[in-house]
Model the fold of this input.
Amino acid sequence: MTFNRLYFNRGILYQNFRQHGWLGIVYLLLLLFSLPLYIGTQYRDYTEEISTLFRVRGEFHWFLAITVPVVIALFLFRYIQAGGPADVYHSLPLQRKHLLTMNLMTGYVMILVPIWITAGVTAWVSAALDEPAFIFDGSVIWMWGVTMSVISLFMFMLTVAVGMCIGQSILQGLTVYGISLIPLIFWGTYEMHLKRYLLGFPDHALRSGMESISPVARMSVLQEAPGWSEIGIYAAMTVFLIVLSYPLYRKRHVESASQAITFRIVKPIFRFGFMLTVMLSGGAYLATISPRHSEMWGIAGYVIGGVAGYIGAEMIIRKTWLIWNRSLLPRFAVYGIVAAVILYVPVADWNGYAANVPSKDSVEKVRIGGDRSIYVDGTYVKLDDKTMYSNTEGYIEAVLDLHQKIVDADLSFQDRGKNQYIPGEESVIIDYKLKNGKTLSREYTVLESRFQSEFENMKNWKDFKITRYETYALDSDVRSVGIRSSLLSDRTVYISDPQRIREFNALLKSEILDQTYQDQKSEWGSFASAEIYPNDGNESSAKQILDRSNPSSTYEIKPTYTRLMAWLKENKLYDRLQVSVDEIASAQFIKQEIDSPGKVKWVYADWQFIDENLRGDRKVATKNKKIISELIQRQRSGVYTERDTFYQIKLNLVKDQSLYMMLKEEDLTEDMKVILADL
Done:
């Protein structure tokens, strides 16, 4: 009888539901409108089978799970943040653990009942529909209910636990979302710090699964229901927060209501955490906008961010901007030294990270280019990387030679900058599978000209070209090939005959693997592009497959692929892709001069630039068939440059179509130079 009276006090429960029960009703209505009502009112030409209810407006469900429970907790425990209500509630003949239990039970009911009512209504709606838009089984509904329950309870308990340490409701809510986002902000900004100051640090080292460590950020990448391991982690943290709330509530002083921080031990944690977060954000921001050759911008960002973060934390804690006292500077010095150590130690030369090149005997296989992924059903899926690694001894030596040369070059900070592209830069991503089972990854951005012999040696290996151009897709079972002209996209041919597909794929693969180093560096545009589609069992036509937004594999057909070009001619496909001279009525040239030292520009065949400048007098037009014939045989791809001269060209077709292309000044033939002499 005593247990029931103390832990399930009807008066407290009645007051809670009477005062705050409307929040549970709102939660229920929002869930009902966003899930069963949406499912029941959707009409589609086809029925979609789904493996999770998060495929049905899942981002909105997750948004509700991370916001409504926070609001419920703020309202239920508002009394401990205000002086008058805190005195009234704590004067009741109830122990704090009993009072806390009543409020927690109220919150659990207001959260869990709407979720499971929604799950039941969803099951009923899906069973009652004659022509449902979505098909799913009961396990899908169960998984949705469990996930929503665990995440909602976690956000509720996080808000309760934070409220025990914070004395203001607004600051409590902000702190809850700050804690939820801090892991993402910290790892993101710290990764930028390592990438900028630690030579060879790979871009993906800390990024894998980073969104999953923040329930707020998880919403932006939610395509499937979280796995049991992720749910288990949130459930364990929820239990921990429940257990933690009781001693925190027991030790919290009533008079701490309206204070920013209620426990003295929390103040240095809040101070340093806030300072470090602002410090990393300030350094990352200034480093991002800094000029390429300025190392001091990032350092200045850390200093400014550290000062601003420390002052901001002090003003929040003291609730005033009058924060000066004798301990302010000594405490800031201590925090600053600790933060500097956290920033410096990982990037220091003496830790050996930058100079670590594995020995040849320790490497089992190697890969260049990093992970590959494809976009499937709204999410990126990592491809199996087994085919991307090579255990060829000579190729491993070539990669190690390049790696060692880069390390020995002792690249200055300026050489590692990432804020502006420099012509001739090459990104090198190396992954070693070591014989001890570990993986060693490094990433560099270097001027290729500084390591030309090493690059040439590595890129001439077929192992590199197989991975770089993904030729392993040409070995699969292909059902169709679509070839588009690079000049006119509506010039398309399709190959569906299995024998011709095999011949085409074999020739294309051999041409790719036979490329020289200079062929790979060529800036000339391709003749056409080939899109390869594996045999997936669908009955779609070749044209339907070609028009899909996510083609399986695309390969350039370069003019230097002489054997493949001969095969296209032999099979009467070349002429169907090529634009003939007789189809072109005239060609118009516009001179474009780039002169922007220190500011690299991306120059390409820009139809807007051409059409706008055709109204002026700096243009030349010709109908000379010889010149037109030479033009359609050559065109430049886009290039980065600071200073160069280009000619933007418009080819006017007889059938009211236009082609746009670009040549460098050095590409002009003698006939072209004659007509362009006055430009």
